[in-house]
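hey so u asked for the seq, here:
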Amino acid sequence: MSKGVRTGLIGGAIIALIYIVLLWIKFTFLSYSPFVFYLSNFVSYLLIICCFVFLALQHRRALGGYAEIKDLFQPIFIAILFAELAYFIFTFVYLNYVKPNFFEGYEQAMIAFAHEREMPKEALDKQVEMVRGQAEASRDFWLLFKGVLLRWIVVDSIFGIIIAFLLRKRTPQQLMDSVLKKQQF
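ran it, structure tokens below
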């Protein structure tokens, strides 16, 4: 097993656990307000992206401080698969078996939030319809699988490629070779 695969498996398991804890906190304690709930989505996603950066830095250090994009992306991609699979499984199990009435409570919190902000009835109706659509989608295994897992693997992979690109570091020999190659043309 290569260093990249091993780093990805270990890092992916750790990031998946972090993701599960963040999801549990969000679903359990932060759904009292739509603003807080969506802010927690943003903050937790940034934390996961930071975990991917940390993983890439760790892997680059394990490779002696030098790594190409493909060397850094491999463990990130494996960690992405673990993290998004954990997100999918936890969300499906939590919303269907642990707390199946989550969306009813969240809908009530949204209605209270809208009344506090004096949101127009049309906008409130649109938000309530969106929450009910999310509730319905969370009960359908394959819809959730396609909508969440596959989409977020692609989005996370784009961030993973960006991270690998920004953190790549070539050896002095690789830099010299690229300079010489440019001079030949």
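Residues 97 and 125 are 27 Å apart (CA to CA). DSSP finds seven helices and no strands in the chain.
lmk if thats what u needed
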